[in-house]
Each structure stands twice: as structure tokens, then as C-alpha cells.
């Protein structure tokens, strides 16, 4: 029976993975404070010992430093969590022959142009988060381990913190919101990512040559402003679990909403390679967002 070690099991993606991976075999799920098995990514050697002790067939890493603005002020910690420890996981996977599944981000790109980025495009991150995530990818690729890296964007889930939930909170507190309308991408459900991951692991067990780096986001595109409007409109139509106070959602350019980290204008990711290789069709982003809102409202 396949033994899967899931790291970061309490995060948005990790939580959904617990459900999706269960059908594939035995899952050992560890989170940040799983002291018993030492799952703290700030301690790479502890994580190495954990992997050696558990001897998984597949390591799925959903742990990361995802606080994009905070990472600008703590680059060493971001690097440990997003690069050094994933690099250790890759070394251990190479040593034992295990598969490593890992997640990366649209923020590895500089956001120039308007064409969706392909896997062949050259990354040029604008932020500490993006740079450390890119270094994580590179360490995994250089290790020679069997791996699957899914680059995704704008992840949301019913559980955990995300942009959609921030908009619901702000929309219930304020009459006017200002939201950037010149950063483009696709909101992607953690449940979709988890289901794609399970499907891909099964596929790779039969066709290991298909491992590598792929872009995985929901279909279509939007910007943060249109996404916020969509979320608030759905909430207003829902049977009153939340009272939306906001009457105006003003579109603003990036320059009018300064943040510590720079973010890409063009976060569109081209998913054709993933869909063709794994025989998948990715649903439009609105479908998953509506499902998530129906769950939480
Ligand atoms: N969120 C997004 O919009 C996007 C995410 N991604 C990538 O997808 C993956 C999953 O992201 P997502 O689920 O949204 O992230 P979350 O922030 O929801 O979850 C991150 C997980 O990492 C854990 N973690 C944090 N610090 C440590 C640590 N020191 N040791 C061990 N675990 C730790 C957290 O545990 P705890 O909560 O206990 O601290 C949490 O379980 C990441 O690789 C991320 O870079 C890619 C694109 C977009
Ligand atoms: C709260 C808020 C944000 N914004 C803008 C700022 C930013 O450009 C955009 C999104 O802000 P957030 O801080 O919620 O999201 P951010 O942390 O940038 O989200 C990113 O997280 C990491 C982990 C990823 O990998 C990315 O794919 C992406 O999902 O919305 C507004 O315009 N108005 C607002 O009121």
C-alpha cells in the first residue's frame, strides 16, 4: 500500500489534500506543530529525520511561508520554509526513490505582458516570497528526485485565510472598498488542486516519465477588483448569513494601493501542458468560488 507523507496538512491546500489523498493509500499528515514527528520547516534537519523515520513512498509538501508582505521583513525564515526545507525533502526523495509533490506560485514571474505564462517562460520574481518559492523549485529540480511541481495562483478555500474571505470581512465592516484592477490571474480552489494532485499521483505511478513542472489554475481570468465584486454579489444574494455593508467597490491601479511586496500585473498561467499530459479539463474559476461561498455563507 502506498504510504503518503503530507506536510502542511492544516493549510488551505493541505486540508483539502487530506480528503483527496485518502483514496490513494495510507496518509501520515503532519502540520507545523506536529512535535511528535518534528514537522517544523524552520528546522530542516528535523524534517529530514522525520522523512527518514517514516520512509514514505510519496511526500506531498503543502507547507510554506505564504504571508507575501510579511516575507519582505523576514527573508531568512521565508527562505527556510520555501526553499531550504523543500530542498531537504528533495534530497531525501532522491535518496529513497520517493516521489515529491510540491506547490509553487504565479509570483515567480515579473508580471510583464498579457500572455499567459508557460512552463518554458523564464521566471523573474518581484518579491521575497516569489524569489524563495523559485529557489525551492530549483532545488527540487536540481536534486534529481522524481517530482511534480504544480504552480498555481490566488488560492482560496472555505477553511483558512484568503482574499475572498478578506473581502467578505471588509465588505461587512465598511461602506467603501478600494481594490486593484490591474493585476490579472485566476482564483484557484484548494479542493481543485487537491483533486488534481491525487489524479496526477495515480497517473505518475503508471507513467513516471510525465513528472516535472506544470501550471495548474482554474479556467478563465479576472482581476482582484472583478473577483471582489463577484464575491460580494454572491454574498448579497445568499440567504443572509452575512450582512454586506459595502455599497461601493472602487477599482484602483496598483500605484494607489501600496504594499510592502510588489506583485505581478500579469499572473495568467497557461495550463495546456497539464491538461494534455494528465487528460484533465479545468473548470472556470467562478464555479469553485461559488461552491466555496455557498459552503461558508
Ligand atoms: N495561498 C495562495 O494563494 C497560493 C499558494 N500557493 C502555494 O500553495 C501551497 C499551499 O498554500 P496554502 O495552503 O494556501 O497555504 P496556507 O498558508 O494556507 O498553509 C501553509 C501551511 O504551512 C504551514 N507552515 C507554516 N509555517 C510552517 C513551519 N515553520 N513548519 C511547518 N509548516 C508550516 C502552515 O501551518 P500553520 O498554519 O500551523 O502555521 C500551514 O499548514 C504553498 O506552497 C504556497 O506557496 C501557490 C499559489 C497561491
Ligand atoms: C485587502 C486588499 C487587497 N488588495 C490587493 C492587494 C493585492 O494586490 C491583491 C491580493 O491581496 P492579498 O494580500 O489578499 O493576496 P496575496 O497575498 O498577494 O495573494 C497571493 O498569495 C500568495 C501566497 C500567492 O502565491 C499568490 O498566488 C497570491 O494568491 O489585492 C486590494 O486592492 N484591496 C484590498 O482591500
From TrEMBL:
InterPro entries: dTDP_dehydrorham_reduct (IPR005913), NAD(P)-bd_dom_sf (IPR036291), RmlD-like-bd (IPR029903). Its EC number is 1.1.1.133. CDD domains: dTDP_HR_like_SDR_e. Keywords: NADP, Oxidoreductase. It holds the Pfam family RmlD_sub_bind. GO terms for cellular component: cytosol. It catalyses: dTDP-beta-L-rhamnose + NADP(+) = dTDP-4-dehydro-beta-L-rhamnose + NADPH + H(+). Pathway: Carbohydrate biosynthesis; dTDP-L-rhamnose biosynthesis. Residues 3-296 form the RmlD-like substrate binding domain. GO terms for molecular function: dTDP-4-dehydrorhamnose reductase activity. Binds 1 Mg(2+) ion per monomer. Its cofactor is Mg(2+). GO terms for biological process: dTDP-rhamnose biosynthetic process. Catalyzes the reduction of dTDP-6-deoxy-L-lyxo-4-hexulose to yield dTDP-L-rhamnose. Belongs to the dTDP-4-dehydrorhamnose reductase family. This is dTDP-4-dehydrorhamnose reductase. It comes from Pulveribacter suum.
Amino acid at each position: 500500500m502506498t504510504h503518503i507523507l503530507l506536510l502542511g496538512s492544516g493549510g488551505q491546500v493541505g486540508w483539502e489534500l487530506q480528503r483527496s489523498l485518502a483514496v490513494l493509500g495510507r496518509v501520515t499528515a503532519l502540520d507545523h506543530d506536529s512535535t511528535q514527528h518534528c514537522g517544523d520547516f524552520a528546522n530542516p534537519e528535523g524534517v529530514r529525520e522525520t522523512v527518514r523515520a517514516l520512509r514514505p513512498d510519496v511526500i506531498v509538501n503543502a507547507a510554506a511561508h505564504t504571508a507575501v508582505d510579511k516575507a519582505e521583513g523576514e527573508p531568512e525564515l521565508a527562505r527556510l520554509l520555501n526553499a531550504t526545507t523543500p530542498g531537504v525533502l528533495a534530497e531525501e526523495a532522491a535518496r529513497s526513490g520517493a516521489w515529491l509533490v510540491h506547490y509553487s506560485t504565479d509570483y515567480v514571474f515579473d508580471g510583464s505582458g498579457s500572455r499567459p505564462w508557460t512552463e518554458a517562460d523564464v521566471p523573474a520574481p518581484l518579491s521575497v516570497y516569489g524569489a524563495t518559492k523559485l529557489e525551492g523549485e530549483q532545488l527540487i529540480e536540481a536534486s534529481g528526485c522524481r517530482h511534480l511541481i504544480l504552480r498555481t495562483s490566488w488560492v482560496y478555500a472555505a477553511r483558512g485565510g484568503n482574499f475572498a474571505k478578506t473581502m467578505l470581512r471588509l465588505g461587512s465592516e465598511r461602506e467603501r472598498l478600494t481594490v486593484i484592477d490591474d493585476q490579472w490571474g485566476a482564483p484557484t480552489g484548494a479542493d481543485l488542486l487537491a483533486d488534481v494532485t491525487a489524479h496526477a499521483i495515480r497517473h505518475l505511478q503508471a507513467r513516471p516519465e510525465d513528472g516535472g513542472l506544470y501550471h495548474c489554475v482554474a479556467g478563465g481570468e479576472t482581476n482582484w477588483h472583478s473577483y471582489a465584486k463577484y464575491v460580494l454579489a454572491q454574498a448579497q444574494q445568499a440567504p443572509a448569513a452575512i450582512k454586506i455593508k459595502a455599497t461601493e467597490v472602487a477599482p484602483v491601479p496598483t500605484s494607489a494601493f501600496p504594499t510592502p511586496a510588489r506583485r505581478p500585473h500579469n499572473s495568467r498561467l497557461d495550463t495546456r501542458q497539464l491538461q494534455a499530459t494528465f487528460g484533465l479539463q479545468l473548470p472556470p474559476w467562478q464555479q469553485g468560488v461559488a461552491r466555496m461561498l455557498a459552503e461558508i455563507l
